[in-house]
Write a structure and sequence with these properties.
The chain is built from nine helices and eight strands. A five-stranded parallel beta sheet has the order 2-3-1-4-8, with helices on both faces. α2 crosses α3 (45-55) and α5 (91-100) packs across α7. The protein is globular. By secondary structure, it is an alpha/beta fold. The structure holds zinc ion. Zinc ion (ZN) binds next to loops.
């Protein structure tokens, strides 16, 4: 059983890294972002609440996020463990979390703010089919046009520069106290998130003492 928390700013690739770990080691991936999107898409009561909060330009409260994660983990369907992304968001939640679960490691993806700006502000979405282009790593063949459907590429509205600045500030303000607490009580592995995703994953596994290739639960080796 392996229980991890992954932390990293927007654009650090934490969703991708969490998915790669979850896939190879049969972990349940608990992503706050995905859970909130699911609630909205499925028109639940919580989804309606989230929609109102976002429409008002506010952030979803720590309490709401905390109760979603607790409800999810209470299902106890994580036979081989879990990896949590987007939680805990403050010190009380982190303390509660450490008391409730025997966490094996906290993965901290480090990406300098300048690199976050470069990555996030270089993202384009197809207005027609929704294909996501990163103008650094995945350039369209024709500038401003979608390779798949020929639609026009647009900057994501929420990727606008000032929104990113306020999210970066919010991230550091909230994350630093949580990281400090984890550093004192648990083992935090800090990973440079600048290399490509395969290199980053390899580094995570090395630091956590996990096999580089596959989870032993899957291939029996
Ligand atoms: Zn398209």
């Amino acid at each position: 059983m392996r229980k991890y928390v992954i932390m990293g700013v927007q654009g650090s690739g934490k969703g991708t890294q969490a998915a790669m770990l979850a896939n190879d080691f049969d972990l349940v991936q608990v992503s706050v972002g995905d859970m909130l999107r699911w609630q909205v898409q499925n028109h639940t009561k919580i989804g309606a609440q989230v929609r109102r909060i976002v429409a008002a330009g506010e952030l979803v409260s720590d309490d709401l996020v905390g109760s979603l994660v607790r409800t999810r983990l209470d299902q106890h369907d994580w036979n081989y463990g879990f990896i949590v992304d987007g939680f805990p968001r403050n010190r009380p939640q982190a303390e509660f979390f450490l008391e409730s679960y025997d966490i094996d490691g906290v993965i901290h993806l480090e990406l300098p703010d300048d690199e976050v700006r470069r990555r996030v502000l270089n993202r384009r979405l197809c207005t027609r089919c929704g294909m996501d282009y990163n103008l650094i790593a995945h350039r369209p063949q024709v500038e401003g046009r979608c390779d798949v459907c020929g639609g026009e590429l647009m900057t994501r509205e929420d990727d606008a520069e000032h929104a990113l600045e306020s999210r970066l500030r919010d991230y550091h303000t909230k994350t630093n106290p949580v990281l400090d607490l984890f550093r004192r009580k648990e083992f935090v592995v800090s990973i440079d998130a600048r290399p490509d995703k395969v290199m980053v994953q390899r580094q995570i596994r090395t630091e956590l003492g996990l096999p580089i290739t596959r989870g032993p639960e899957k291939n029996g080796s």
